[in-house]
Every structure is written in structure tokens, then in C-alpha cells.
Design goal:
It is a single chain. By secondary structure, this protein is α+β, with helices and mostly antiparallel strands. It folds into two domains: 87 residues; 47 residues, no CATH class. Helices cover 30% and strands 26% of the residues. The protein has a four-stranded antiparallel beta sheet with strand order 7-6-8-9. Strands 1-5-4 form a three-stranded antiparallel beta sheet, with helices on one face. Strands 2-3 form a two-stranded antiparallel ribbon. The chain is globular and about 55 Å long.
């Protein structure tokens, strides 16, 4: 049962980030929030309720967190969350599990780039040193707060700025 907001959770909370290749339209966002709310309210592992919450960031990222200090998420419970994400992909025509797309914020706009096109976009100036790169591989709330958004020059892309 959801008992905390993301801001109230421990920095040790386990976290998953699902990035959409496009922003959610307002009607989708409402439906996605309702589905996520229902899910985290009933999410359990081995019969034990999980202390979970979620947030939708930038109308394009779904962030789900579980405070595992009482009960840890099990393989089956994690599979059920991925099942929810897959069903949202189908229902709304989204791509939420594609890790080959890199989200970059520049001029207050999020753009998606194929991983294999990053170097050429840096070299052509489309992605600048100050562009913000989203690191969706973060695994804890504390890591998300500190390292989810990085300037390109401070991220794994720094090797292309020479």
C-alpha cells in the first residue's frame, strides 16, 4: 500500500525508470497515473504489501520506487511491474522498455536519440556539453536524485567532446 511520496522515501529505496520515446498526452497521463496508483496500492511480494510509490517526470518518464526496509521486492513482484509497463505500451502505443534510445534535454526540450547516433550528434553540435542526459540505469532513489540528470560533458558522452 502506498504510504509515502517519493520525496519521503529513503534514499536507499530501490528504483526503476521507464522512459517513453515520446511525451504522454494529457489523457494518457491521467490513465497511466490511475493504473500506477492501483498497481502500487496492491503491489505485494510473497503476500507482504510493498511500500511503493511512483512519479511521472517530464510527462515522459515513469519512476517506480520501493522502500525495501520492511519487505523486499521479489522476482515475481518485479515481473508484475514489468507486466504493467508492457500492458501500458500496448494500450497507449508507447515504447517504455527500449534502452537503445537516449533522452537528452536541450533548450528545455527532451529529444530522443538512437544510442548509435550519439557520437555524430555530439560532433554536429546537436548535443552540446551542457545538454542534460538522462541516466535511466540508476537503481536507488539517492542515485536518481544525484545522477539521473547529468550534463553531457560529465556523463558517459564526455569521450565525444575532445
Amino acid at each position: 500500500m502506498i504510504t509515502q511520496t517519493l520525496e519521503q522515501m529513503s534514499d536507499n529505496a530501490r528504483l526503476w525508470v521507464y522512459q517513453s520515446t515520446r511525451p504522454f498526452i494529457p489523457e494518457e497521463k491521467v490513465q497511466i497515473e490511475m493504473q500506477l496508483q492501483r498497481f502500487v496500492n496492491q503491489w505485494a511480494a510473497h503476500g507482504q504489501d510493498l511500500d511503493a510509490t511512483f512519479v511521472i517526470a517530464y510527462d515522459q518518464f515513469i519512476v517506480i520506487a520501493v522502500d525495501e526496509s520492511r519487505h523486499g521486492a521479489s522476482g515475481c513482484s518485479i515481473d508484475s511491474s514489468v507486466g504493467l509497463i508492457r500492458s501500458m505500451e500496448q494500450e497507449f502505443g508507447l515504447s517504455l522498455l527500449d534502452r537503445t534510445q537516449i533522452a537528452v534535454e536541450s533548450n528545455e526540450r527532451i529529444q530522443m536519440f538512437p544510442f548509435n547516433a550519439i557520437k555524430e550528434n555530439v560532433q554536429s553540435g546537436v548535443i552540446g556539453q551542457e545538454s542534460v542526459v538522462f541516466n535511466n540505469s540508476v537503481q536507488s532513489l539517492g542515485d536518481w536524485k544525484q545522477n539521473w540528470k547529468q550534463k553531457a560533458k560529465d556523463s558517459w558522452m564526455k569521450r565525444f567532446f575532445s
